[in-house]
Queue: 2 jobs
Job 1
Amino acid sequence: MKNRVKNFSEEHALWLKKRSFRLAAVQAVRIGILLVLLLFWELSTRLGWADPFLVSSPSRIFSTIGSLYREGTLFYHIGVTLAETLIGFAAAVALGYAIALLLWWSDLLRRVAEPYIVVLNALPKIALGPLIIIWCGTGSKAIVFMTILVGIIVVIMHMLSAFMQTDENKLLLLRSMGANKRQILTKLVIPSTRAAFISMLKVAVGMSWIGSIMGEYIVSRAGLGYLIVYGGQVFKLDLVMTATVLLCLLAAAMYFLVVLLEKILVKNTKN
Amino acid sequence: MKENILTFENVKLIYHTVRGETVATEGLSFTVEEGEFVAIIGPSGCGKSTLLSLAAGLLSPSEGKVVRRGSVGYMLQRDELFAWRTVERNILLPLEIGKKLTPAMREEARALAEKYGLKDFLGSYPTELSGGMRQRAALIRTLAAAPDILLLDEPFSALDYQTRLNVTKDVANIIRRENKTALLITHDISEAISLADRVIVLTGRPARVAHVHTLDFGENDPLKRRENKQFSVWFELLWKELNA
Ligand SMILES: Nc1ncnc2c1ncn2[C@@H]1O[C@H](COP(=O)(O)OP(=O)(O)OP(=O)(O)O)[C@@H](O)[C@H]1O
Ligand SMILES: [Mg+2]
């Protein structure tokens, strides 16, 4: 807005006040619910309503994090999982985007590829576990591969459908100006799908965590997924819960980074 | 004698789909002379937009010939400004596409925008403009590459009545002052009468020419034409021909 009025009416001032109050209230309730849940969890184990051996508790999770830190393995496990996830995420997005562009470019290729993509999308990627171990070994390579596999199809499908929905009239306009296909791509298709790009990133964040943890379930000797599996096998539920909580925090952080990117990238795409 | 910029000779166009074929135009012949403002009216769905695509060379006729001298500028019902570009970069788009973005051409496009009241909005995004201003920006974008003929596909029909009269007047003035050749598609009879030198009435699908009228107002201001006594006479005649 260019010429926003500086002097509000009283009603507007009141409206603004009410609005900020409502936002603060929502925030407070959100945090409140979390605190109440944590408190209830803690109390129920202390008062003997629930067995801390089975459900763990906030304080036990806290001390588990502490002991992992003292052992020096906390950041090692986090780092391993984070690296696998980020590399898999970046590769899935880059490769998937490139493939979607290719499929947009060539009608023939798109038609040929369509049934393959549908089948690959429906296939539970975990079924490929044994194959991946044989192809990539049991190290991080296999986990990154799994992460890419889980993410890439979603990226392709999401972006391709956005590319294909490019406004017919704008295409007509560019063609009438004598634009070639490459110009249509760079001047219209890519910039007009920025919002779809962001929403694809949000989905891909979730997918890459699924991929990396699934990968760590199948193979691996380190990482948060490994801690969960290991903790389950030796019945250390504190460890399982701790790793899960750390995962939640990391996934949330990554999601908020994407939201931040959205604020920067998508300013003037709405029409 | 003035030269023809656009000639349609017995043009036939068939659309093919899996369900069958649609003959959009058949035996369509007309010409547009240099400097002329021609309006085409016809029943809805008769093939008017198809005609413009043929004129722009985006479709090739199944039969017959379309001959055009020079380049085209296309303007559509909605402004189709790109929301992620500023008004200035929207206006420069055809130059960018045609690789003609020289400092001289850029200056000319900017001057055009300033001349027609967009000076203060060159740095704004299209969402910050009113409907009428957006349509004016779209026209200046169309003019920026200095096309030899303007193809206008119902460029005012998305605007409300008041804005529409004003924008129509602006656009008509700009086109006249810049000495452009224009082919305007419309389903609004009064718009055709208030703007054109010549009106071509099309038949229903497949479109061919039913009637051609040269309007002799001796006056190019659309609002003044609307006040002319001849206006309603033309209106009645065209109305009858369109609904025949
Ligand atoms: N791409 C296409 N494929 C198949 N048929 C088409 C296509 N485009 C248009 N048609 C058909 O051709 C006929 C003419 O369409 P056109 O858009 O040229 O009409 P119009 O006179 O511009 O219509 P309107 O008044 O609604 O703007 C219509 O019957 C339409 O269904
Ligand atoms: Mg049309």
Note: Chain A touches chain B at residues 1-2, 167, 169-170, 172-179, 183, 187-188, 191-192, 194, 267-271 (CB under 8 Å).
Job 2
Amino acid sequence: MKYQVDKNGFYGKFGGAFIPELLYSNVEYLKEHYLNIIQDTSFKKEFKMLLKDYAGRPTPLYFAKRLSAKYNTNIFLKREDLNHTGAHKINNTIGQILLAKRLGKKRIIAETGAGQHGVATATVSALMGLQCIVYMGEVDMKRQAPNVARMEMLGAEVRPAISGSKTLKDATNEAIRDWINHPEDTYYLIGSVVGPHPYPDMVARFQSVISEEMKYQMKEKTGSENPDKIIACVGGGSNAAGAFYHYLENESVELIAVEAEGMGIKSGKTAATTQTGTEGIIHGSKTLLMQNNDGQIIEPYSLSAGLDYPGIGPLHAFLFKSHRGKFLGATDKEALQAAFELTRMEGIIPALESAHALAVLPKIKLKKEETVIINLSGRGDKDMQTYSSNLNALKNNF
Amino acid sequence: MNRIDSLIKEKKNILNIYITAGYPEKDDTVFIVKSLEKAGVDMIEIGMPYSDPLADGPVIQHSSNRALANGIHLDTIFYQIQEIRKNIEALPIIVMGYFNQLMQYGVERFLEKAAASGVDGLIIPDLPVDIYNEKYRRKTEELELDMIFLITPQTSDDRIHQIDEATRGFLYVVSSSSTTGNTASLKKKQESYFERIAQMQLRNPFLVGFGISDKTSFDLACRYASGAIIGSAFIKAIENTSNLDKTIHQFIKKIKS
Ligand SMILES: Cc1ncc(COP(=O)(O)O)c(C=O)c1O
């Protein structure tokens, strides 16, 4: 099992738990107990039930006929956008809230970028009757306003993060500081495969339901469990980790991760970590991140709030360095165009994050007999403001 | 015996002041340390500003951002410490920063530079003890630098002993579960925690930090510890002053009186 975390929490040289002593007892307790808890029969039963009856799983694997014709290949969309709350994020929040319950925690905190993880956390907190506080960059609160309203409707308190670039990185800092200040009653419900061990592995396991379903759905539809390629966008990397998980050891399946290039990797306004980053530590994990020579973290940029993060999870750093994963990028413009294309050709408005995965279709070599799965991580309701303001330009290019 | 050991052996009620290098202005560091020493401060902790200081509250975050905007770099800080050492011999100087800064500078290179500049000890809150022991301890101790680890109210007795074993100089006892700058007054609960540490017969002496802001909290910590560390309260005091030297003397006088 080359691509599984080792007992110290590392994927190759990436991962670990580089945390202040103030977080040690909580993180160590999680590390010692998470596998026992989440592999327990009653936990698995409850998790499965909620994924099915509450989140609406399995999500369909949809053959996108017109898109396939255009790119002269066979494209399947894994419809994570059809989950309750509109993205893959709910898979992980259901898992972690069940864990938090078993740990006896009363107060749930989370960070959010696009607001999808915040909404998914507020949702499961409401479901379990737990207090919920979500940290969100002030910039993101503006560009993803509909999700702020949803979180508040769900009873969560949304606290603006006002440091740094006022986006996902800063929201994560604030959530970690909150946890330091409330070590006894609080559970930190991380939204991606980032943070100190065991979070990256735990979140990947909860998201792995995506590729678990893909396998039998592909078998049903094509006769083979294995597609030739799987494409997913990477912010921290949770939807990609889930879509890749059960194919990691099967090297005949090409895994393509797509990062946000923002205005282009040479513009200085980008979030493409593998292209512009180096090894270091962010949010307690040794991984690739965007930083200067002094180790100061560089403010990232992407039009998409969910991808606007200067690091990637340690699993992805390892997939990149070991060449198991192929890392590509898409700019703001390319993602907008791809979102418009999917909408007009298949009648599906994707999240701006997911649109980055779609945007590499014109950039890769595709064969007629090949099968490609694109993980459509979320829907675009939250991005309508951005889409509307670009609609005229998009129509003209189409 | 190094500077930290001799100080703790000789003195009680050690006052350690935390400053952010390059704050309020880039070149203030040397002046502030000299002024603190004259005012009677026993030890200095120099914060190396970081963009994402996870263990720090708003006051130190703000001072760090300002210092970074002032253009402070690690090499500037080493240079400033060398300048301080030209005039000040006995005062122990500790630097505090985050592990990513050391990684990018090169950990060994950082340690060598720190030792050569006159640094006595290091506080790197996110450096795991086991990784330190395995990879960096030998070099650190060879250079006679003290690695100072934190313990908190949540740290188990077993782990306190482990941390004590890896630590040189003194243990940094975090007064309460919080980021820096929390000024909620020290309570009974903390007193019994300090008392527990004091009775554990550890190898190292300890200083109390986080949430020490005035004479009352300083005196209380000193009842159990060799001394205490004041950070955010001092940073706040010098933020908008028009007379740094005077403000510093007044601040220290209030604590030491
Ligand atoms: C729809 C959607 N896709 C992708 C992401 C990026 O996160 P990750 O890389 O963890 O999947 C987000 C994050 O907010 C999202 O909302």
Note: The domain at 56-86+208-395 of chain A is CATH 3.40.50.1100 (Rossmann fold).
